[in-house]
TrEMBL record:
UniProt keyword annotation of Nucleotidyltransferase present: no
Pfam families to which the protein is assigned, alphabetical: CCG (PF02754), Fer4_8 (PF13183)
Stated role: Component of a complex that catalyzes the oxidation of glycolate to glyoxylate.
Superkingdom of this protein's organism: Bacteria
Cofactor(s) demanded: [4Fe-4S] cluster
Catalyzed chemical reaction(s): (R)-lactate + A = pyruvate + AH2; glycolate + A = glyoxylate + AH2
Protein source organism: Romeriopsis navalis LEGE 11480
Keyword Magnesium: no
Protein name: Glycolate oxidase iron-sulfur subunit
Record-linked InterPro entries: 4Fe4S_Fe-S-bd (IPR017896), 4Fe4S_Fe_S_CS (IPR017900), Cys_rich_dom (IPR004017), Glc_ox_4Fe-4S (IPR012257), Helical_ferredxn (IPR009051)
Length: 450
């Protein structure tokens, strides 16, 4: 009897499969100068050439030419990349490492033969996280697990870490589930206060709307107070950032099409987003859907309207007065999220906005451009490296003496808050929109000292 035909895998080719391998022209643009090594967080922690941008580019080249096998070992080096894009900013030769790793991750997704536990974990993440309704269903048993003290017991035994360090890392991210997590509270249209200047669409994000819904509410209040009518199409879901950054291309394309459709009838001047990872992906829709004849042009037009909310507000200007957040001067540090700084080149605008709050003294941390280790689901999938980076980031931020940390990305917020707690530091982490909102409402940040 003839053996059933095995589907072609990377092992059969001993290299990448023929679907969109990393572009050899981009690979050739690398002159191996090594400037990028100094800014690469995975290289900083692991210390091996193969876990640096240059090393990974060598690997891609070797696999493309058949000199290096596409094995579990090379896949580990691709997995260890945080996708933070710091190397893209640093590279003097303009190597588009983001496109190289994107193509490589899609190859890994199609061809890697991962251990069962990891496969299940990844499937769970990609089948639940980007779908708020499914995530809400999962949160029901999770809230019981927290309510009945099981969480404390599980954490004290270290049981999960023995089964899977990734599962333990995911559990370690679990913050208390807010009451507002169970349903979306914002209406479809929120009118501007006073004379409307713009009509803007807003994306709620899939994880943020559940785990930190206050950020979306604060963003709406800041926008409406500054003359924006806000439209929130209820059919919107995940923007596809998580899938796109992890090489789940088919899923990312579906979610991108869905997002474009949700905003099709909203008739807005801009589509605004307050999470950096999502903002970067929304601006990439033209590239993500480049092979889709039906959506290609719509995707480009959609991306052209996308702005990070801080980028937008700095551009159009705040029109409403701001009050101090405390009587004494307030020392604050702004944490640059990678997809904001390296992905969207936005660093000045958030600082400009925060400095407009009376009394704010903005400090700069060392290694401001280094990833905090969150990187989407990296802190779940690669917990050791993420832990080291989280510890460094929490230290660097608090070493500035800041009384409050401003962070414009849900992933960074969770990661930094967790590491501050581990270090026993009670410094609040708030989104710049929350800080501006408080300044507009005349609220105090910290209780007055006795
Ligand atoms: S990616 Fe850029 S910075 Fe890094 S080694 Fe290549 S040319 Fe140099
Ligand atoms: S994306 Fe970040 S982690 Fe990956 S190679 Fe570049 S600098 Fe290193």
């Amino acid at each position: 009897m003839q053996a059933p035909e095995k589907p072609a895998t990377a092992q059969d080719f001993l290299g990448f499969d023929p679907t969109n391998p990393p572009d050899p022209n981009q690979i050739d643009a690398c002159v191996h100068c090594g400037f990028c090594l100094a800014t690469c967080p995975s290289y900083r922690v692991i210390g091996k050439e193969n876990d640096s941008p240059r090393g990974r580019i060598y690997l891609m080249d070797g696999i493309n030419t058949g000199e290096v096998e596409f094995t579990d070992t090379s896949i580990q080096h691709f997995d260890s990349c945080l996708g933070c894009l710091a190397c893209v900013t640093t590279c003097p030769s303009g190597v588009q490492y983001d496109q190289l790793i994107e193509a490589t991750r899609a190859q890994v997704t199609r061809n890697a033969d991962r251990p069962l536990m990891e496969r299940l974990l990844r499937q769970g993440i990609f089948n639940i996280f980007p779908y708020p309704d499914r995530l809400r269903l999962l949160l029901r048993p999770v809230s019981l697990y927290q309510k009945f003290g099981l969480q404390k017991w599980v954490r004290s035994t270290g049981l999960l870490g023995k089964i899977s360090p990734q599962l333990a890392a995911m559990e370690g991210m679990l913050t208390e589930i807010p009451d507002k997590a169970w349903r979306d509270t914002l209406p479809e249209i929120i009118p501007a206060q006073g004379e409307p200047r713009y009509r803007v669409g807003m994306l709620l994000g899939c994880v943020q709307r559940l785990f930190n819904p206050d950020v979306n509410e604060a963003t709406v209040r800041v926008l409406t107070a500054n003359g924006c009518e806000v439209a929130i199409p209820p059919s919107q879901g995940c923007c596809g950032a998580l899938s796109h950054h992890q090489g789940q291309e088919a899923q990312a394309e579906d979610l991108a099409r869905q997002t474009i459709d949700s905003f099709a009838a909203a008739n807005v001047d801009y589509v605004l987003i307050n999470a950096s990872g999502c903002g970067h992906t929304l601006k990439e829709y033209g590239h993500i859907l480049k092979d889709d004849e039906q959506y290609r042009d719509r995707a480009k037009a959609f991306s052209a309207k996308v702005k990070d909310v801080q980028e937008f507000l700095a551009e159009v200007g705040l029109t409403t007065p701001l009050s101090p957040l405390q009587d004494a001067p307030l020392t604050m540090v702004y944490q640059d999220a990678c997809h904001m700084l390296h992905g969207q080149k936005i660093s000045v605008q958030p600082r400009q906005l925060l400095k407009q709050i009376p009394g704010v003294k903005l400090r700069e941390p060392i290694d401001a451009a280094l990833c905090c280790g969150s990187a989407g689901v990296y802190n779940i999938l690669q917990p050791e490296v993420a832990h080291e980076l989280g510890q460094q980031k929490a230290n660097n931020l608090t070493n500035t003496g800041a009384q409050v940390i401003a962070s414009a990305n849900i992933g960074c917020y969770v990661q930094i808050s967790k590491h501050l707690e581990m270090q026993g530091k009670a410094v609040p982490v708030l989104h710049p929109m929350q800080l501006l909102d408080m300044a507009i409402q005349g609220q105090q940040l910290l209780p007055p000292a006795n």
